[in-house]
Amino acid sequence: MFKLLTENWALKLLSLVFALILWFFVMGERKLERSYAVPLEMKNMPEGMMVANDVPSVVEVRISGPRTLLVNLHSEDMRILVDLKGLDVGLTSFKRLEERLNIPAPLKVTRLSPSYVDVKLSRITVKTVRVKPVLVGRPAQGYWVEKVRTNPESIQVEGAEDELDALQQVETAPLNIENAGSTLVEVVPVDYRGKFSRLKTPQNVEVEITIGQRPGEL
């Protein structure tokens, strides 16, 4: 053991002196403060669940410290990780985000915006809802809309259970029947803009609008 401590003692002493000089240089130099846009990432999403609220993808972080360290620190070298492992359905607040940021010891976080994030988890579910055709305009004089049929009559929507609970139907893009005097058949997209859900399939439906002549107009 003594041999290990005394072997190459000159080189070890030189290394120690160099480390001390570097430490005094870093600690004694002029300090700065800079802002960084640090990515916020979530990991370990529980199976069968999804995030059902708006969570920022970037956190504005203000860091102060020695100039030498700050000029070599870049946003892409940092990230804030939020671990969702073991979480259940509902809202969870993640505070003290600065503790999730790995930066060298002489550097200090002076401000974060936001300083915390709320993550709402919801079960992923699939719901079948009816398709409601949207008609604009009026048929030609003496004609009326006898019947409207869609194919398929219903479609599936997939997404956050909380959002789908209130969903009863989806609408098509507007169909113009202005001055129509005969039956119309059109393929139109379903106009659905769910925030935390999406159309599973299909995204287009066929709409048949039966236009008939009013009694007495024959």
UniProtKB/TrEMBL annotation:
Q: Which Gene3D superfamilies match?
A: 2.170.120.30, YbbR-like domain
Q: Which domain of life is it from?
A: Bacteria
Q: What is this protein called?
A: YbbR domain pair protein
